[in-house]
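in:
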């Protein structure tokens, strides 16, 4: 009998250790690849949570614990975040795992964003769009929906968004001869005004306002901003037919055109070619190079409508206009749009993805006590999304065949 007891205890302990090992082995890949709706818990002093909500326009950090899938990380920093999405009722949050504990990570992440989804009543614009950008090979954060609970009370449907940092750069740009390509110059674009890539003069201050460094922050202004100023100035001063030889070493032109084509296909109105100027992107100057490229950020304003033209001239963006004036680059743009159509249509990917996301969040959105729109608005917006893929593919194919702005492509 004692041997049987000992065997049972040993077996139980082994099972427990294996269970703990399995939990500890979970990574960010497990988080973002999950096919089920996540649950994330924040444990915050109730007085601190109230202060954060009252002072939601301020970036003050407060301590909290975070629990996901049986794992808890303690003493993290949380703060309110966003521009137009800032909310006292349903605050968007930045979660920094190393704010109070130097070097602390969670699932290998130093931080992530909790997007409050207040600017998209469908709740799925951004998660579907970022998945499609990734499918196209465009640098972008990973995202996953979650039910957020604060002190065990349901606080609403959110999206967990991977931070754009050195870890993302390493994942996206990989290694060259064993050297991880994540030590370039990374900038978050900060919207100031309706700027469409016009020359801002030789001074660096306008660029300091618009491009916030996220790496090499202690470098001189000349090191940080002169390459950006040079790029913008040369784009403005160079005739279109000389663009390749002049800025080809400063800008990854094929990557940027792929990015523009993807945003056009997804009917994005608030990206690099936006209705109110350049917005919602990170700029990255590649490691040991002078070449820049774009990283997608904040895709809430995609899916504007299925008959959103592929014509980029509507925005008056200097860089986009110059690129589209070069026959080689216009042809590449149209080829990248065609590739987007192909990948959206293959196996019904885009249609299936929209349905999958809609089904996953539906109950959580309906139960969200903090969403700033009515149930009818949510259902109407979701209905538009469910019809988007097929209508968009049909329209884009028509413009590719009959010419951009062809009246025959319009249903009205």
């Amino acid at each position: 009998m004692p041997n049987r007891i000992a065997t049972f205890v040993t077996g139980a302990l082994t099972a427990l250790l294996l269970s703990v090992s399995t939990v500890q082995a979970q990574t960010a890949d497990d988080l973002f690849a999950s096919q089920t709706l996540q649950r994330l818990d924040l444990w915050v002093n109730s007085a601190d949570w109230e202060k954060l909500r009252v002072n939601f326009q301020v970036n003050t950090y407060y301590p909290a614990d975070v629990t996901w899938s049986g794992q808890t990380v303690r003493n993290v920093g949380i703060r309110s975040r966003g521009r137009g999405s800032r909310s006292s009722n349903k605050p968007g949050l930045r979660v920094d795992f190393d704010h109070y504990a130097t070097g602390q990570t969670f699932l290998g992440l130093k931080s992530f964003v909790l997007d409050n989804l207040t600017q998209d009543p469908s709740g799925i614009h951004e998660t579907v769009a970022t998945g499609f950008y990734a499918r196209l090979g465009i640098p972008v954060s990973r995202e996953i929906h979650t039910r957020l609970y604060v002190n065990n009370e349901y606080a609403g449907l959110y999206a967990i968004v991977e931070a754009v940092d050195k870890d993302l750069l390493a994942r996206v740009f990989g290694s060259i001869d064993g050297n991880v390509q994540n030590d370039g110059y990374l900038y978050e674009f900060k919207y100031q005004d309706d700027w469409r890539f016009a020359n801002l003069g030789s001074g660096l201050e306008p660029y300091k306002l618009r491009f916030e460094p996220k790496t090499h922050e202690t470098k001189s202004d000349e090191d940080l901003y002169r390459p950006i100023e040079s790029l913008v100035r040369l784009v403005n001063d160079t005739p279109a037919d000389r663009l390749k030889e002049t800025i080809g070493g400063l800008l990854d032109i094929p990557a940027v055109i792929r990015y523009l084509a993807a945003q056009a296909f997804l009917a994005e109105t608030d990206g690099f070619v936006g209705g109110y100027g350049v917005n919602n992107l990170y700029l990255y100057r590649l490691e040991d190079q002078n070449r820049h490229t774009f990283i997608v950020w904040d895709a809430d304003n995609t899916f504007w409508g299925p008959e959103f033209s592929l014509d980029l001239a509507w925005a008056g963006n200097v860089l986009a206009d110059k690129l589209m004036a070069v026959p080689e680059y216009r042809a590449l743009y149209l080829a990248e749009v065609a590739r987007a159509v192909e990948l959206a249509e293959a196996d019904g990917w885009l249609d299936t993805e929209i349905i999958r996301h809609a089904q996953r969040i539906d109950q959580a959105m309906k139960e969200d006590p903090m969403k700033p729109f009515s149930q009818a608005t949510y259902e109407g917006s979701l209905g538009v999304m469910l019809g988007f893929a097929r209508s968009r593919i049909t329209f884009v194919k028509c413009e590719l065949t009959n010419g951009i702005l062809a009246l025959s492509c319009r249903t009205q």
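note: Residues 28-166 form one domain.
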